[in-house]
Design a protein that fits this description.
Layout: H1 2-19, H2 25-49
Helix pairs in contact: 1-2
Length: 50
């Protein structure tokens, strides 16, 4: 499970890098907000596992 969480975090970072290349500021902001929410969920899962 820890490996899956690490992979999920890496995927989110990759999406964030790709998002930074978008021209639409609204879309960029929406995706960034979603990514941050997902990172918080990953942190919560890590806390539950420990």
């Amino acid at each position: 499970m820890k490996t899956a969480l690490a992979d999920a975090e890496a995927a989110l970072e990759e999406v964030q890098r790709d998002t930074d290349k978008l021209h639409s500021q609204e879309l960029r902001a929406a995706i960034t907000k979603y990514i941050e929410a997902q990172k918080e969920q990953i942190k919560a899962l890590r806390r539950k596992m420990n």
